Amino acid sequence: MHDIIYLTDIEQVGHLPEQTQLRLRRVTEAYRFRANDYYLSLIDWDDPDDPIRRLVIPDVGELDASGELDACNERANYVAPGCQHKYPHTALLVCAENCAGYCRYCFRKRLFMDNQAERVRDLSESIDYIRSNKRISNVLLTGGDPLTLSTERLERIIRELRTIDHIGVIRIGSKMPAFNPYRIIDDPELPALLARYSTREKRIYVITHFDTVKELTPAACLGLEILQKAGVILANQTPIVRGINDTPEALVKLMGKLSYIGAPPYYFFQCRPTVGNRPYAVPITEAYQTLEAAKRQVSGLAKRARYVMSHALGKIEIVGMNEDYFFLKFHRARYQEDEGRFMIFYRHDKAYWLDDLVPADGQPHPVHERHGDTLTPRVDAVAQ
Ligand code: SF4
Question: Which residues line ligand 1 (CB under 6 A)?
C-alpha cells in the first residue's frame, strides 16, 4: 500500500528557490496548485524544461488575463445539476470536484475555484434526465477526475447507469493513471467494480490523459494493465501543450508507447482560450505541423487520433492545411445543420482558435448566422 501525500501549497514542493516560490504564490492565489509526491518525484529538477514540471508547477504567465473562464460556454450545456447534454447521443456527468493534481493548462479550472457552483453531489436529477432521454447512448463521467471518488460512490453512479437499457457505453475520463497509478494498484475493489459493469455486451472505457511519455512509468503501465484485465477499453486524449508535448519527438514517443500498451491516442486537442492558459497554447499551424511530422514516424494504430478544437459549437477537426488555407470539419456538432460541415478558412499562422479565423469559402463564420443581410452571433457560441 502506498501512502500518497498531496501538496496544495507551492512552498511544500521544495526544489524551488524562495524568490520563485513567492512569485508563484501570486499565481496559486488565482489558480490553485495541487500535486502529490509520486508525480513530483518524476520531475528532473536539473532540467528546466522537464515536461512534468511544466505540467504541474505554475508559470507566472498564467497571470495574463486574456481568455475566458468558461471558454466553450459549457454552462450553456447543463440540462440538470451536474449533467451536460451538448450532442444528441452523449451526456456528461460532472461527478467529481477534484483531481489527483491540477494541470496548469486545465480548461475546467473554474471547477476548482471557491466561488463556483458547478460541481454536484446529488446526481439523481441528472440520472433521471438520462433515463428519460432515449437518444443518449453513452455517458462520460468527468469532472475533475471521477477516480478521485471513492470506489463505493463510483459504483453507485455506474450501477444506476447500467439500469438504463439505452446506455451502451460508459466512459470515465481520468488522469489518475498518470497522476497517481496507486489509486488503481492499491484498491482491488476498483477493478472488481469495473469488471462487474464492463460486460461482453457493454464495455466501460477509461479515457486516459497522458501528455508525455515520462508519465508512462512502470507503475502507470501496471495501473493500465489492471484496468485492461478488468475488461476496460483504454484510449488516450491530450491537448498539445507548449513545453510538454509540442515537438514531433515528444509526440512520437508518447504515441508509440501509448499504442504499445493498448491505450492508443484518441484525440489531440487544441488548447482552449481559457483565461490563464495562454503560456500553454500552441498556434493551430504549429500544432498541426508538429502532429503531422510525428504521424509520419509512427504506425497506423498510433496515429488514428483526430486533432480537434472542442468549441462551443462542437468538436471541429483540423483536417488539413496548405500554403493559403485551413480545412476544418465538424466532427461533432451542437447544431444539427453543422453535422459534417466542411469549412475553408484563410491560413493564419498566429491563430489559436476558430474565432480567430476568417472564412474563405463565402460562408458566414460558423459563430454567426445570416438573417437577410445581417450576421448575428449564434446562440451558445459565445464564451461566458
Ligand atoms: S486532470 Fe483534467 S480536469 Fe483535472 S486538472 Fe487536469 S485537465 Fe483539468
Answer: 99, 102-103, 106, 108, 144-145, 175, 209
